[in-house]
Amino acid sequence: MPTDWRRALAIVAHPDDLEYGASAAVAAWLDDGRECVYLLASAGEAGIDTLAPAEAGPLREREQRASAAAVGVATVEFLGHPDGVIEYGTALRRDFAAAIRRHRPELVLTLNHHDTWGGTYWNTPDHRNVGRAVLDAVGDAGNRWIFPDLAEEGLVPWDGVRYVAVAGSPQPTHAVDASSGLERAVASLLCHRTYIEALTKEDPETYCRTFLEGSMRGVAARFGGRPGVAFELFIR
Fold it and tell me: Where along the sequence do coiled-coil regions lie (predicted)?
């Protein structure tokens, strides 16, 4: 992965999206003195079958803030789009462009926007729509004639995004040596305990460690034996 950047903005659909692998890279980046802000399109309120959205949303926001803190991320923002039915369109692009102008990142991180996970499992509409809107919003953020009302609100165009890194892509191109961030990544994913306990009967810590270690080993096979986090990288 390129290293000629200092500020990152991670934009995903739900709490836990960043914790299934990417957070180990975020931890390593922060160790190197870089900055990262998390922006979530929704609170993930429709993600737990046994909890009504009105109860699940605030709980998952709290878990996400704790999860971010576990890797050293201090700023977590939520946009309030409805979980499960996030729509691709100009409203979503505008929200993301506004955040990019506000935080002025050089690297934007998002989650798999492709139709499938490795050609086997169908990706969710939220992931597809958010990921694609992120890619488009990077260009929107730098164009003064797209969403000109943002400039009137003080959010002047920002054309400084140099890279967009897509985690969980079925066609990765780059990797980050994230072995130093593994333990914090496990702790970070474990913060989503309510979600995990509804997802599996396995011991939560065993589940988190097994998943993340397995994912990083899979990257190591293509990364000189080093445990890592893989990304599909778009260069601007």
Answer: none
